[in-house]
Automatic annotation (TrEMBL):
Protein name as catalogued: Probable 2-(5''-triphosphoribosyl)-3'-dephosphocoenzyme-A synthase
Listed InterPro entries: CitG, TriPribosyl-deP-CoA_syn_CitG
UniProt EC number: 2.4.2.52
Keyword Nucleotide-binding: yes
Keyword Glycosyltransferase appears in the UniProt entry: yes
């Protein structure tokens, strides 16, 4: 089982490497541009992933050995996550590259470890296994929206997600987790499973555009508000539904990257969820 846990931890790291390497990604850091980010580049993300990678196994093994409630498991994972975040910020010179992704991997790897303890299954997982892991993640985080967002008006320092909640009422990644990651369960993973074993970089870029057309991305809301989000959803829906050829899609994404960069808008929430989708695609053997 130790080797299997180590293999799964490596998959989480691989998913993050795949996500940042995908190019061109509108408004996002990729191999070619910094998108709408002025303080980070491709190599900043490499440093960040390397700093986080050792903690992925800790998330898994903590879930695997946990005895107690799932809320107690979350608190253990959150504690480990604070150390992981500190390591990330040291590696990136205090630049927040993967705060949201680190939160979700703490939850999902913890849930995965806990699930594997209850079963005798081996990789690859099935879609039913994934659904059960997402349900465990939901139970782990049911309390978050209420407890984390209570008394925000009295806090002296707020995260971007907390500001978006106060101004827009959007629960962001905490709401995704508490609801069992519906963007993964109902949108991205079914879309990816349709192309099982024939997934390439262009298809993964199509996955990103699909997420951008559907997701209530808190990064966009923080930078541009509701009008910017609605505009991006409409624009990416048009791209998604246009049935573009590979060359047409690449040209469209390159142009759209320039547009979002000029607007200073980055769909970081969609990118984080894509990395989670990549992780489960690796677990299920469809990537």
């Amino acid at each position: 089982m130790i080797k299997q846990l180590q293999r799964i931890a490596t998959m989480a790291q691989t998913a993050l490497f795949y996500e940042v390497a995908l190019s061109p990604k509108p408004g996002l850091v990729d191999r070619h541009t910094n998108g709408a980010h002025r303080d980070m580049d491709f190599f900043t993300f490499i440093k960040s992933i390397q700093a986080l990678a050792p903690y992925f196994y800790h998330y898994l093994i903590t879930g695997y050995h946990h005895e107690g409630t799932l809320k107690e498991l979350f608190e253990k994972e959150r504690t480990i996550g604070t150390f992981a975040e500190t390591a990330m910020l040291i590696a990136t010179n205090q630049i927040n590259t993967h705060k949201g992704a680190n939160f979700s991997f703490a939850v999902l790897l913890g849930a995965t470890g806990y699930y594997l303890k209850q079963t005798t299954i081996h990789l690859p997982l099935t879609s039913k296994d994934t659904a059960k892991i997402l349900n465990l993640a939901s139970t782990m985080t049911q309390h978050l929206v209420h407890e984390d967002f209570d008394n925000l008006s009295h806090k002296s320092s707020l995260s971007n997600g907390e500001r978006v909640y106060l101004t827009k009422g959007v629960t962001g990644i905490r709401g995704e987790a508490a609801n069992g990651y519906p963007a993964l369960r109902d949108l991205l993973l079914p879309f990816m499973r349709e192309k099982a074993h024939s997934i390439d970089e262009l298809f993964l870029l199509r996955c990103l555009i699909y997420l951008m057309s559907q997701l209530e991305d808190t990064n966009i809301l923080h930078r541009g508000g509701r009008p910017a989000l609605q505009q991006i959803q409409a624009e990416t829906k048009k791209i998604h539904e246009s049935n573009l050829s590979s060359n047409q899609l690449l040209r469209e994404l390159q142009c759209y990257d320039t547009i979002l960069t000029e607007r200073y808008l980055s769909p970081g929430g969609s990118a984080d969820l894509l990395s989670l989708g990549l992780f489960f695609a690796l677990l299920e053997g469809i990537l």
